[in-house]
Design a protein that fits this description.
- The two termini are 24 Å apart.
- By secondary structure, the chain is of the alpha+beta class.
- It is 32% helix and 14% strand.
- A hairpin with a 4-residue loop joins strand 9 and strand 10.
- The longest helix has 15 residues.
- It has an eight-stranded antiparallel β-sheet, sandwiched between helices. A three-stranded antiparallel β-sheet has the order 3-5-4.
Length: 354
Amino acid sequence: MTEMTAAPVTVPVSPAATARVLAEAARAVDAPDLVLAVSRNGVRTVHTGGSAEPGPVPRELMAYELGSASKPYAGLLLARLVAQGRVRYEDRAADLLAPGFPVHPAVRRITLRHLLTHTSGLPGLPADFYPQAVPRWSTDPYGGYPADRVVRAFLRARPRHRPGTRWHYSNFAVSVLGHTLAAATGTPWEVLLHQQVLAPLGLDATRVRPGPDGTDAVGHRREGTPVPALDTGGFTAAGAVRATPLDLLTFLEAHTGSAAGSPTDSSLAAALTEVTRPVLRRGLRHAHTHTLTWFQHPTPYGPVLFHAGATLGQQAFLGFRPGTGLAVAATATRRVHRADTFVATAYGLLTETR
């Protein structure tokens, strides 16, 4: 993670005052389209802006690419399937994905928990991903690497470390998790996600593929050139989710308990609780804490859970403070760069608020 250096921000309870703070924060972010959204105990305040002229669809109703911020959806799906008794965290992925197929002993030991928590020993992406991706790195690096190739790469992998011993962020691992859950349930990933997460939470404006013309936000390179919609190829579970900022708030409100209605299904309620529990520490003096799917940081007002994501031309940030009813969702349509302020600004709204 890059260092967060957001200036102190105080978000008062008043929606009008919150709107002023969001407008001030938005000045720090340069993007064609920008949405900063805050929910406090279900009371929402949304600021939209950006350097581009607004289109016919309001920015808060456009679907934005989440990139790696899709992973909390994969985590909640796994937690719900475990709560239903359909899989276990300690199930071995290779046994579910390709029973009886000969694999490296380290691959045989990789569990569903290892895949989700980035402790599988797998690299960030398969080694043979790069030759086909580099020639189209700025336009479509993932589209030429389909699901069956991700699965084959996993089954022939030679993990760098023994599973469960080291943390290494891996889009490869979370993608394998998606294919494994699809195999274990006999249900395609997109259908499984909709049945178990999106539909029960009322996320009608969340999907894993581009929607009708004019409903998806258009990403941009740093200099402002539009980029094509993201095709994640076989890496769907790691980064394919698209959602409107309003749906992002609904997703986060379910985690804070401030949604309009509490989940009526016990497995969903259990999963929402499970994904907020710390499960590992890493780094110098174990300073970095993680739940099944969220990064966790301490603040003067209690722990915050968050995840950021970026695609070829868009960025997203999701975060909340358990037990406080506070949630922040942010989206922008400009590719991340070294001096980018987007994540720091969104993180500041989450961590510096009372």
